[in-house]
Design brief:
Structural class of chain A: mainly alpha
Number of strands of chain A: 2
Strand content of chain B: under 5%
Order of helices and strands of chain B: HHHHHHHHHHH
Main location (chain B): membrane
Strand order of the largest sheet of chain A: 1-2
Largest interface: A-B, 73 and 100 residues
Number of helices of chain B: 11
Largest sheet of chain B: none
InterPro entries (chain B): Brnchd-chn_aa_trnsp_permease
Number of domains of chain B: 2
Helix content of chain B: over 70%
Shape of chain B: globular
Distance between the termini of chain B: 30 Å
Largest sheet of chain A: 2 strands, antiparallel
Pfam families (chain B): AzlC (PF03591)
Number of helices of chain A: 4
Radius of gyration of chain B: 19 Å
Protein name (chain B): Putative branched-chain amino acid permease (Azaleucine resistance)
Family (chain B): Belongs to the AzlC family.
Distance between the termini of chain A: 41 Å
Helix content of chain A: over 70%
Oligomer: heterodimer
Order of helices and strands of chain A: HHEEHH
Strand content of chain A: under 5%
Shape of chain A: extended
Number of strands of chain B: 0
Chain lengths: ~110, ~240
Amino acid sequence: MSFPDYLFLFAGMGLVTYLPRWLPLFFLARRDLPKWLVEWLSLIPVAILCSLLAPILFTDQASRSLEIGKPEFLVAIPTLLFAVKTKSLGGTVLIGMGLYWISGFLLS
Amino acid sequence: MTEHTHVTTKNESWFWDGATASWPICFGYIPIGLALGVLATQAAIPFWAVAMMSILVFAGSAQFICVAMLAAGASTWSIIFTTFVVNLRHFLMSSAVAVHLNGIRRLFLSAFAYGITDESFAVNMTHFRTGNWDHKRAITVNQLANTTWIISTVCGAVLGQFIPRGAFGTDYALTAMFLALLLFQLHNIVYVLTGIAALGISVAWYLLIPGDSYIIGGSITAATFGYFFKQYREKHT
């Protein structure tokens, strides 16, 4: 592909990525939202985080099938305990990485 | 979060606060960005095109899909359409973050929208809830993550094969960050039940329906369930 081809492709991708990020901010942030909507939206972060994590923790993503007890899930348990104890985001990332790295040697 | 409670409301420290909050994201982006760059090189995409894609699109999963689709010879329109579907979830995140940016200038909001990703959204929402957070700190998180992403992807494209994949557990960095952020969001039983519902629904959705609709489908269904549970609970206590 040539430069104009790439530019057209990425500009198109950029536009359809930007619009869903921009529309709600541009039109919702200037007005007072109804109470039910604020309450519903306050549950969205938890719901999205769990939806993002669920396939990583409980499924084999190559074959898209259920997999209980995979390393990602086993490592998540002590990682979460560390987060409960310390309330540290940075520390939890480092501990999670370290445990996952070690699990690569232990579980293979 | 405890590590940020010392910042009270001093306005001068916004950049430092944003930088401190963004480092777990940047840390997680580096290996993923490098990997994307390497894959792009293998798909014969030049490094300047990788830079252009990271600047114009800034959406990790969509960029991986784009590289795979280009390698498979997909058409431009099908790649753009897939990108649209994959990134629709940001509509929800943008709506949720709008609650905390009430009354901010529209020009600023338009710049802020560019940097809304799964990661910056989760970090900023956690900080907005605990207080001591504002639009300047939030956009600092967005833009530092963006800069890290662009540099990492280009480095991956240029340095290519020299970097071992997944060294020191870097593959798990973002997963660990999501786990911690999730934990910090669990304020009461309503949030816990919403989370459990989202886990169950999105796994089932992921297994039954191809594509990425499980993220939007799982979140909307679980948040709605959580909302009605909260209504029920308030009526009966």
